[in-house]
């Protein structure tokens, strides 16, 4: 019955709407339903009479212009089907995006686009709210085309070249934000579309930098680029590390593309405006390797004979070796470094901007577990042992920066048809934020040994002494001996770079705290780095090899202020100030 | 009929073309498919106000409604090639695009609903011509629409404001025609309760 009533109501509504009948005559047709029908028909009639919201005339005409531009584009594209219009659709990605591949406009369409953009801008000046709202929109969302169009409009309306460059950098950052968000949402296709847009914005920035040449603004742009690169690439790396199987390939591509684009733009900026030479300023690069979890193979031994980084410093640009020892290559097992970062090497380098890293893999061995205790080694073929990464990073004076080479063991290793293993390294260079800021330390402590591992006790704390980076220990490592150690402190390990064992001390030395001293005296003798200083009638021996020496050139009988630590009979100076005697 | 044959040969997908009115629209669609600017201008001017009104009630925000309306036509230009006539008017097709876009938008921005719109609807700034009375009526309606279900709201907007047929509404909201009729009934009953209370009271007096 209800269904019948629905139909009766509908029939009446249709008749009333077309003017065939009025409410009363309709009710007369269905006397049994008058009570039910009347209020509904009256409500419907009142709805028909309601005034409709009127659009703003400027919005109507702007919308029409926008649409007609599109019509014209479509018409032209009919002439050359595979032409450029699709690119426009791609670019503004209307309502979820029109499929296609070309992300950017040709110059001709860019000109046309300018006109459209100008009109859109006029519209948006009137409705800033939409523009503001669109700024947070993501690809595929309704307001995303507005975001892109607004960006284009801002580029068109920005006249100064450096202003344009800054905008390009900003928009590259936005695309990266979007890549990260799309990555999170698992929208691989959108990530793939966005990566070339990052590259394009940075390329535009690079071109302006090259064309503009020297000047203060270039320095500022370079700084902005570097800052942007550090932040954005770190964000992308974060996204990359959390990527799923679906998004990993596109995020890898995005990270590589972005790294390269930033790298080339920064190099261009450095060429245009070489930074003042950073004489004597050095930082340290540490290299780590890691591998995400992967099953199958028991061990994958990889040998790296050379790692270099590229210092971008205009005419002084050059490759700097971090590690170069073909005779004793670095050897690590990809299976052992799953989920951990293994230290590879460390090297002091000039402070500055670095844009690339390259390494040479000389050998790879796969260990297959055949049975419980049966293993078989296979030499894996490494088709391209040289790997290069374009990934800008900076080393500040005194900074220690850790770089992580993230091997994807699973994807790196292939089995060929003939059953041979092939290692095509799938590696990502990561510059983790906060990594590589371990404390540089220099102190004296007491050595101890346990099962071949040396420890050093300083201020009552015992640290593992990692000697792998020490070229030559001065003196002989002895249980209970006092040693002077320079290196990097990371949690409970001192990664030593220099170790000097001093005379073994007798009983009671263990745990002795290094005492800090500060005094003023007269230089009595100078023998290289070993000075004697008379302080209140007492002669102290001072080792100034590690000291920061300021003031006058050192000479006998000059006054000197010394700060340092007591190490047995010697004072290891950290600060030395030579003062002309009154 | 000759026209229909011609169009079919042209691959427009227009199969039936018996009424004069439809023929006009069929010709318009064919021209639109050829990206004829005048045809598109005609489609735009004819349908913009209703699409806009529909979206305004759906999303509330003036800017957003304008933006989505503009997008609807851009989408239409992109998609006209796939449009087949088959009794589904261009008006219904445009409303379907609008419906899809707004559904998509609401899904993504789950919080953008009709709620914040009352004040917006009260605003007379948008046209500069509308009376305060008109704005109040719309605000009242907007409030009433807020208090019915989403499906009922869609049917009311598409039938009473956009003027679409049951079949067209059914296709847009992807429900059988019978369901559209039932929704229409329930929507009117609910609106009667909300809007008509005062009126009814007056009648009784």
Verbal overview:
The complex is a heterodimer of chains A (582) and B (205). About 7% of the residues of chain A have low confidence. In chain A, helix 2 runs antiparallel to helix 3, helix 9 runs antiparallel to helix 10 and helix 10 runs parallel beside helix 12. Chain A is α+β, with helices and mostly antiparallel strands. In chain A, strands 2, 3, 4, 6, 7 and 8 form a six-stranded antiparallel sheet that branches. A five-stranded mixed β-barrel of chain A has the order 13-14-15-17-16. The longest helix of chain A has 26 residues. In chain A, strand 19 and strand 20 form a beta hairpin. Chain A is built from 13 helices and 23 strands. Chain A is 37% helix and 33% strand. Chain A has five domains: 48 residues; 212 residues, no CATH class; 149 residues; 66 residues, Nucleic acid-binding proteins (OB fold (Dihydrolipoamide Acetyltransferase, E2P), Beta Barrel), CATH 2.40.50.140; 65 residues, OB fold (Dihydrolipoamide Acetyltransferase, E2P) (Beta Barrel). Chain B has 205 residues and is an all-alpha fold. Chain B has two domains: 34 residues, no CATH class; 170 residues, Arc Repressor Mutant, subunit A (Orthogonal Bundle). Helices cover 73% and strands 0% of the residues of chain B. In chain B, helix 5 runs parallel beside helix 9 and helix 9 packs across helix 10. At the A-B interface, helix 1, helix 3, helix 4 and helix 7 of A face helix 3, helix 4, helix 5, helix 7 and helix 8 of B.
> Which class of the largest domain in chain B in CATH terms?
Mainly Alpha
Rg result of chain A: 36 Å
- Oligomer classification: heterodimer
What is the domain tally of chain B? 2
Report, as a whole number of angstroms, the end-to-end distance of chain B: 60 Å
Q: Structurally, how many domains make up the residues of chain A? A: 5
Count the beta strands of chain B.
Answer: 0
Q: What composes the largest sheet of chain A?
A: 6 strands, antiparallel
Strand fraction of chain A equals 25-35%
**Average pLDDT rating of chain A:** 75
Low-confidence stretches of chain B: 1-21, 111-130, 200-205
Superfamily at the CATH H level of the largest domain in chain B?
Answer: Winged helix-like DNA-binding domain superfamily/Winged helix DNA-binding domain
Largest sheet of chain B: none
Indicate the CATH architecture of the largest domain in chain B: Orthogonal Bundle
Structural shape of chain B? globular
* SS summary, helix count of chain B: 11
What's the helical proportion of residues of chain A? 25-40%
Beta-strand residue fraction of chain B: under 5%
